[in-house]
């Protein structure tokens, strides 16, 4: 079930509401509403094809120019019976997942092409000229803006220095740190210059400086030079990539929101540590079975006084609580994605105990259906893990 729009605050008040999340939602609702009569966009991926063909379909969709990204969106998974808004959620989640994990694409010699590189919370655009020539950073901006606009996942882990530059921050206050440097050799050079080692050890550093038209290191310029090397690596070498990335974001229509509501920027680009799911975050969102009615696939209902039904509901609900309480962050993300179509918990995530063989989900209604037959947690855990592992290829439903 789609979350109801908040009509207590006029949509036009996104500039003034105090809560940045509320402001972002109002802005998106306004932009989507103004384009509701635009030509619908159709994003289709055939999950029966290999990963490279699936990824090519996503990239091709976002490579199109002169697109109104706020127009209505309809997604389809060919080879999967799922339909409705849950498919849209699944697709937006897949797009962001691919931006983080990499695309199977025929670009260069790598089997997996990553548009961003580096460590968690310090990702910067790749310096690959091939990615730049193929406008892949424009594609990244469109993907992130499109997902955000349609209430999908945000893009976590981007370097604060890149976010600062992307949003027009002054160069002199760019918060670059050595952890923003993905090249470990350059990182070591920066650390050496910033330390107290003898200059005779700096042959490789000297060659690096000269290749970037910087002076050779000496006793008086080494600290300054370490900062210049770091800034050049993180910002100056990625300048064109950042410009492409910015253009892609602007094309989605989000720029006015980001400029006028700077407090929304951490929502669009959260720290990866802040994006991690915890068991309590999920447990707080679950709507547990409120009656003892077990729904059969035939939609025949048991009587409320059926004691075995009462026992089954309590037992299986307890198994789910145990699973959530002990699951790893990766397992929690898989569970939520299987349940509602993406990794962000919904306000209300419903549970039903049903007569069935395996766990299934109705993502459109944010509902998880668990079979009543489980008599041991071991088998419950085994089946649930098997089902949620399908969430990145489909919905795991018959």
> Judging by the overall fold, what is the CATH architecture of the largest domain?
Alpha-Beta Complex
Overall number of structural domains: 3
Estimated helix fraction: 40-55%
Annotated CATH topology of the largest domain: Hect, E3 ligase catalytic domain fold
State the helix count. 17
Structural class: alpha/beta
Largest sheet: 5 strands, mixed
How many β-strand runs? 11
How would you name the CATH homologous superfamily of the largest domain? Hect, E3 ligase catalytic domains
Order of helices and strands: HEHEHEEEEHHHHHHHHHHHEEHHEEEH
Taken as a percent bin, the fraction of beta residues is 5-15%
Low-confidence stretches are: 1-9, 292-305, 393-398
Give the quaternary arrangement of the chains. single chain
Mean pLDDT: 86
The radius of gyration is 25 Å
Distance between the termini: 20 Å
Fold and architecture overview:
The protein has helices at residues 20-34, 51-63, 85-101, 129-133, 136-149, 160-166, 184-193, 203-211, 222-234, 239-251, 255-260, 265-268, 272-275, 279-283, 307-326, 329-340, 377-388, and strands spanning 41-46, 73-78, 103-104, 112-113, 116-117, 124-125, 286-287, 295-296, 349-355, 360-362, 367-371. With 398 residues, the protein is of the alpha/beta class. The protein has three domains: 11-167 and 238-270, Hect, E3 ligase catalytic domains (Hect, E3 ligase catalytic domain fold); 177-234, no CATH class; 276-388, Hect, E3 ligase catalytic domain (Hect, E3 ligase catalytic fold). The strands form four sheets. Strands 7, 8, 9, 10 and 11 form a five-stranded mixed sheet that branches. α7 (184-193) runs antiparallel to α9 and α16 crosses α17. It is globular and about 85 Å long.
């Amino acid at each position: 079930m789609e979350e109801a729009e908040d009509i207590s605050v006029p949509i036009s008040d996104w500039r003034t509401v105090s809560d940045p999340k509320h402001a972002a939602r109002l802005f998106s609702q306004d932009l989507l509403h103004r384009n509701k009569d635009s030509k619908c966009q159709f994003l289709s991926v055939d999950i029966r094809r290999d990963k490279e063909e699936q990824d090519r379909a996503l990239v091709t969709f976002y490579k199109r120019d002169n697109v109104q990204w706020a127009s209505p969106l309809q997604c389809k998974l060919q080879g999967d019976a799922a339909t409705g808004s849950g498919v849209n959620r699944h697709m937006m989640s897949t797009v962001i997942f691919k931006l983080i994990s990499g695309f199977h694409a025929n670009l260069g010699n790598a089997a997996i092409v990553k548009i961003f590189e580096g460590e968690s919370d310090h990702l910067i655009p790749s310096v690959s000229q091939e990615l730049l020539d193929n406008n892949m950073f424009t594609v990244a901006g469109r993907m992130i803006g499109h997902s955000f606009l349609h209430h999908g996942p945000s893009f976590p882990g981007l370097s604060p220095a890149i976010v600062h530059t992307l949003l027009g921050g002054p160069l002199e206050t760019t918060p670059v740190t050595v952890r923003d440097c993905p090249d470990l050799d350059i990182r070591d050079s920066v650390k050496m210059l910033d330390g107290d080692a003898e200059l005779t050890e700096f042959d490789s550093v000297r060659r690096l400086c000269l290749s970037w038209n910087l002076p050779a290191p000496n006793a008086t310029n080494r600290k300054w030079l370490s900062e210049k090397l770091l800034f050049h690596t993180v910002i100056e070498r990625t300048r064109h990539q950042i410009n492409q990335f910015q253009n892609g974001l602007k094309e989605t229509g989000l720029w006015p929101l980001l400029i006028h509501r700077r407090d929304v920027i951490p929502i669009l680009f959260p720290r990866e540590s802040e994006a991690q799911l915890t068991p309590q975050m999920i447990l707080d969102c679950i709507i547990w079975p409120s009656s003892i009615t077990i729904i059969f696939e035939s939609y025949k209902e048991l009587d409320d006084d059926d004691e075995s039904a009462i026992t089954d509901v309590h037992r299986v609900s307890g198994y789910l609580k145990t699973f959530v309480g002990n699951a790893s962050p990766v397992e929690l993300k898989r569970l939520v994605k299987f349940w509602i179509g993406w990794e962000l918990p919904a306000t209300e995530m419903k549970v039903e105990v049903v007569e069935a063989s395996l766990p299934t989900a109705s993502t459109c209604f944010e509902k998880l259906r668990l079979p009543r037959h489980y008599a041991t947690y071991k088998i419950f855990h085994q089946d649930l893990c098997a089902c949620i592992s399908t969430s990145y290829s489909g919905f795991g439903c018959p």
